[in-house]
Every structure is written in C-alpha cells, then in structure tokens.
Amino acid sequence: MSRSNNEDVVPPPRGIPAITGKIDYTNAFHIFPSQLQPYRGTIIAYGASTFSTFIGYPLDVLKTRLQTHKEFTGYIDCARRTYVKEGVAGFFRGVLPPVVSTSFSKALSVFIFTKVKPLAYDLIYETPWTRNIENQHPFIRNIPVCFISGMISGGGVSLFACPFEFTKIYAQLERLITSKSIKEVRTGKPEYILDPKKPITTVSIVKEIVKHDGLHGLYSGYKYHLMRDSIATGIYYSIYESMKWSMNNLINKDPNVSSPFSVLIAGGFSGVFSWICIFNIDTTKSLVQKDAVTNILRRSHGLPPLPPKHRKLERFERKAYRGLGISVTRSFIVNMVFFGVFELGMTYLA
C-alpha cells in the first residue's frame, strides 16, 4: 500500500493494520481534493465522532450526576428527576463543548495514533534486544505497540480536551448544585442562592471559570484527566485492533478483511473495557471538578470557598463505580457507532 494512504495500514511484517483497512477504490466516492488527502482519516474521524458523541450525550449527563451526587437512587431516578426539573434540555446541558472538543479530540487521537504506531513499532522491535522475536505472532507483537501508541495519543489529546471537558462538567452540574442550594435554604441551612433562570452558555461558563480561578482553572482535575486518557486510550486501541483482527480471522479467514460485525462489536467492547479499567480515575476527576465548580459558584456570590478536600484516587470500592453501568452502556453505543461510521467512511470515501 502506498504512503498516500498512510491512515489505512501499517503493512506486514510491521504489525496488523492500524485502526482500519484498505479503501475500496472500485466503489469509492471521490469527495476529497488532493490537498485534503493526507488528512482524510482525520476528517472522517471528526465526522464520525460528532455523530456518535451527540447520540451518547444524554447518558454522559446521567453518568456525571450519579458520580458526583449521592441523592439519586439509580439511573431511572436520575433520569426522571432531571426530566422533571429541566425537561429534555437537561439531558443536553453543555452539549456544545463536547460536540466540538470530543470530535476534534477523537480526530486528533486517530491522527496521532496512526502516526506514532510505526515509530513505536520500530522503537520496540528494531533494537538489539528484540530482533530475536521477529517471528512472534503479529497479534502478540501488536498489543504493546498499540498500548504505547495509544498512551501517547491520549496524553497528547488531554492537553486540548481538559478545558472543554471541565466546561462540560460545569454545565452539567451547575443547575443541580443550584437546586440543591435552594433546597438547603428552605430547610434552614443556607449556603447561597443562584438564579435558576440564568442562561448558561459555553462563553459565560468560561468567563466565570477564568474570572475566579484564572486560566489554570480550566485545567481543574488535569492530573486525573491525563492519567485517565493515557491509560484508557492505550487499552482502547489495543482492544479494538486485537478483537477486530481476531474476529475477522474467524469470519473471513483473513484478519485484514473487515466485516461490519467485527467492526461494530470490537468498537463497542473497546469502549467498554477501557471505561471499566479507568472508571475509578474518572470518578476522582469528576469529584475534583465538582469541588472546583462549587467553589467558583460560591465566589461568584461573594462567599468564601470551601476548604480544599485534597481528594485521592478513589479505591476499587462500590461507591467509586456509581454510574458505571450507564457509562458502559453509553461507551458501547458511542464507540460502536464511531468505529462503524469511521470504517465505512475510510472504505468508501476517497
């Protein structure tokens, strides 16, 4: 395969295909001009991620609220109370930042991963200590390459994604914290009163964060964000490529010829397994960011911030996994849709 289609594969014996297979030129729709050909995979990844992010966003709202507020008894209770208090709009609170940022992050992740993977392969297998395993099965050889490339990709993307994710968390939690504060006032435990009719926009949220916490406030919880994204992305691509390769081998007797079934199932489970492995990190990140949102709201109403809680990484306990079920469901749907649309585009859009 020529280098002009560098998004498609890293050919044998340098490992199994990177994310996707060959383009079908006999049935392809030629929509990309020559100037955009080097970025074809990145552009397709952005479109696929936009579609999948919007579909899964309501479940992400419920996940965040379950992680950060104990008053909900479960997913149905959280969904019901969100709908009663905020209507359908409550499930899409803060949707603009992730639609923009997550789509760009996913596209950037795919770009970095496909560029780094050949370099990671050379780093691992082109040394005096590893050349003697040249005949190792490509499935086994591919796993550490994927994991290292994915960690680099996830770490790089986190620098861009963290401010957008914190903005999203702020939008998802502001009305909930507002409602809780008003309830405390009515029960004789006043903290602060917010105007529930105050419009919430992405720009107003960013201004509020920067006003009270400075630019670095946009990176609240970044330590855990970086840890989460690096580990999760390494697992994510490792699971996807390995599972798809194995299923293709079983279905088509050729691991490099993808079937829609293998793409959808591998895509769904890559999201599920990566979320299960890092969910306690994500819960810690959400709690740190909830503390930051609460103190920003207090400062905006002339009240002193609460003492810092110095949260540590949540242990592998039940409370750290509130919202895991809905996160797994969301992740399966979102990543099944993403990889399905992405691979379809990479096969038929030239």
TrEMBL record:
Keywords assigned by UniProt, alphabetized? Membrane, Mitochondrion, Repeat, Transmembrane, Transmembrane helix, Transport
What subcellular compartments does it reside in?
Mitochondrion membrane
Q: Which GO terms describe its molecular function?
A: transmembrane transporter activity
What are the transmembrane regions?
Answer: 261-281, 320-342
Question: Which sections of the protein are Solcar repeats?
Answer: 36-119, 141-246
- Which family does this protein fall into? Belongs to the mitochondrial carrier (TC 2.A.29) family.
The name this protein goes by in its record = Mitochondrial thiamine pyrophosphate carrier 1
